[in-house]
Amino acid sequence: MGGSAPRQDHHLPAETTSFVDRRGELTQGRELLARARLVTLTGPGGVGKTRLAARIAARVRRAFPDGVRYVHLSGLHDPALVPLAAADALGLHDRSAQPPLDALVDQVRDRRLLLVVDNCEHLADACARLAAALLHGTEGVRILATSRHRLGLTEEHLLEVRPLPVPDPDGDLSAAEGYPALTLFADRAAAVVPGFRLTPANRASVARLCHRLDGLPLAIELAAVRMRVLDVDQLLDRLDDRYRFLTTGSPVALPRHQTLRAAVAWSHDLCTLPEQTVWARLSVLAGSFDLETAEAVCADVPPEGDTRPVTDSGWRRPHPAALPARRGDAPAPPTRPVTAPVGAVEASGALPRPVTAPVGAVEASGALPRSVTAPVGAVEASGALPRPATAPAGAVEASAAPPRPATAPAGTVDASAAQPRPAAAPGGTVALVSSGPGLRTDDVLEAVAGLVDKSVLCREPGPGGARYRLLDTLRQYGLEQLRRVEGQEEAARRRQRDWMARRAETYERDWFGPGQPETVARLRADRDNLRAALDYSLSAPGEALAGLRLAGTLWFHWHACGASREGLYWLDRALTAAPGPTRERARGLWVAGLLAAANRDFPRGHRHATEALALARTLGDDAEAAHAEYVIGVIRLFGDDLPGALRHFETAVARGPVPGRHLSLAGLDQVELACALAYLGEAERAVEVCEEALRLCERHGEQWVRSYVLRILALAHTVRGDLPRAERHAREALRLKLAVHDVIGIALTLDLLASIAAARGSHEQAAVLLGGADRVWADIDTGRWGSHTLNSVRRDTEERAGRALGPEAFERAHLRGRALTLAELAGRELQEPGRPHPAEPAAPPPHEDGTVRLTRRETEVAQLVAEGLANQQIADRLVIARRTAEGHVERILGKLGFSNRSQIAAWVTARRCPNPARIHPPEGTT
């Protein structure tokens, strides 16, 4: 059974712009976290809560030996997924049968970490339940939350994030640079007007502008972008006009809300009509998105002159930044007429906007080269019955289904019926492409470039190129505009769902082949939009079957990318909403069975798989029947019914190719057969089966299944007694599993490598590897699915190494393994450059070489770290300042060459053994 998870970065977000000084709030936040376990930063939208939380967390990270992790909730809208989002941020891949929140608490019960939970306001109840469970069920977990409102727990301490201070525009401005609001404006203005700075001539105007914007950082940043075309006084005049209009009709609105809305509405009015349309349609997207997704959701028609068939992958095109100029390109086509500014000239006499060249415009050729995309559905030839439209192409066993005909992209709408926006219409009323053929994909590209230029869209790096994101405040405003025209939101959401479904089919088709790490990363990046597509399908009338189809298509994502709990959640909803006897239901049932089994609910898994098998046979769908049979067999294998699993997979493999069956599952049939053979002692047959499976994987350039084949091949050679060959295959399996970050596969392979090390007499290495394996299993399932077979291998290794080393030496080596990060452990085992094999005596690690000396005070601090004390507790114990304690810890980490406190603890424990050759008397006190 698989279970990989993509490489992920749930540490603090990188800052792409300078951070304006908030020393008071930073100090207050650190002090609150030192004495309280739940601190919530509250304040209005756009005030800077997220940036402040990230800065506070960065300042205190040294106090948390198990790290600081960041939970992004802005793209999440289902309360049931909050515990799963937190577990994902913590790197946990629980496969137990417990409820998600209970499992999360169990896994972090003994950890000392800070969890930053960002944007809680729309999921306040779920966040409160998460916080309460962690506060009551653990002792070392602290929570820093951001929300527009308090969570309402008695343990909660609040820190109100206020707007930036602004000086009196009519007062003394000689020290204007000392005011963060003015500093922020000047910094952002200098980004668009090189050389801009505060001067005696402009200080009063800048102060008046920031005062008008109430010191709200987001409003200031949106205004500063307009310095590209207006000076400060012009900015102030036009903002005053917009502000007066917007605030006259809502006497009950909070002043700061009025201010931010005025700034956002003004930015909206300064956009072109296509930019406004794209802004509105992009508001249905959750989280970040790439250019192809923006085009699929926002465009009404393909580009001019594009005669290619429209495939299920959409109009796929490289990002413009990646396109070199080509010789022989045709001359640039005539420039399209300039769109008149929306609300062309307001009563105040606002000037028309100057025309700016689109960001990313190509060289004189003008045309963007387009790569030809093979039609989705093209499959290997063999003469089998055609597959339904959702069948993966190229990743299925031989089938001669003809390619599907080209069709227009699903969900496209003609917005021509939308009413045109009246000139000077205030409040952001938007006409969504009022005339003509509608938005083309080229129009969307230019609009995206313009929105980035105006700081409406944030551009960030991502897998496959640039990605974009709407801030929550701007997304909500865009959604309001979209809802002004009846049917537009529904059309945009359906288009988004259809695009994500086509993309999921492409990913599934390509899964059994090269590029799996890239697919994993892209799925990770698209996760919020996949959730939005599933939620729309399972909430909108008449869309449930499409939701079930999408959830089933993503089987490889749920199973192979560490998302089994979330996949089971969506499949449960989809199966309930679409109970009809369809192929989609047959697939949904076996996928749900596989995921239930992965979470140790074997009875439920068997029930779902059996029902799927019966339905598939009724429908005459041999491929889905074969998939269901795989699940039944794997449940037998991990339920320790080795003879039954052997008979089952012998039959499955002997049956040969099944048209339409996914090659990943065909390969896994061979893996499970070889696994049963190896555990039953039939090593020679196991090797033969593995070698056949390897040939299949190598023909397709596949890595994930291949890594499992190599692991079982290593197991078979271990049974044969060929330990060098076994170790070589196991290391190669580990290398491949690291490439796709297959967490479960990594844990299984570390268990096997520990067993091999013990068998060849490298008992200390075996103990270190076993410690590392136990650390990885702690994030998955400490009971190893309750499998007697898996647990017996671990027990045998522990007993063999323990007898050879003795209890104390074994415990020290085991603790060293648990203290290593996964990268460090893998580097040692794979003998990467600069990392000697742990069995080799040369070049001891930094903490074991004879030159490292700690002062007496550093020795005391290291011992307290080993006892699990945080920096404040160390300061209290030694009667020193907290900052002094932090400095000691940092120096210890530097001297020993370590990166976390767990390594210090392991070092101290190892030093307690009597080995005078490695112990140096501490130097003088500090």
Total number of strands: 8
Beginning-to-end CA distance, first to last residue? 55 Å
Structural class call reads: mainly alpha
Strand order, sheet with most strands: 2-3-4-1-5
Draw up the topology in text:
Blueprint: H1 23-35, E1 38-42, H2 49-60, E2 68-72, H3 82-89, H4 100-108, E3 113-118, H5 124-137, E4 141-147, E5 156-160, H6 180-192, H7 203-212, H8 217-225, H9 232-248, H10 255-269, H11 273-282, E6 289-290, H12 291-298, H13 441-453, E7 457-462, E8 465-470, H14 472-482, H15 488-511, H16 516-525, H17 527-539, H18 544-553, H19 555-560, H20 564-577, H21 583-598, H22 602-619, H23 622-638, H24 642-655, H25 663-679, H26 683-700, H27 704-720, H28 723-739, H29 743-759, H30 763-778, H31 788-805, H32 807-819, H33 822-830, H34 856-866, H35 871-878, H36 882-896, H37 901-911
Parallel strand pairs: 1-4, 1-5, 2-3, 3-4
Antiparallel strand pairs: 6-8, 7-8
What does this structure look like?
With 926 residues, this protein is mainly alpha-helical. Helices cover 53% and strands 5% of the residues. The model is unreliable at 1-9, 246-254, 303-394, 399-430, 832-851 and 913-926 (pLDDT under 50). A 5-stranded parallel β-sheet has the order 2-3-4-1-5, sandwiched between helices. The two termini are 55 Å apart.
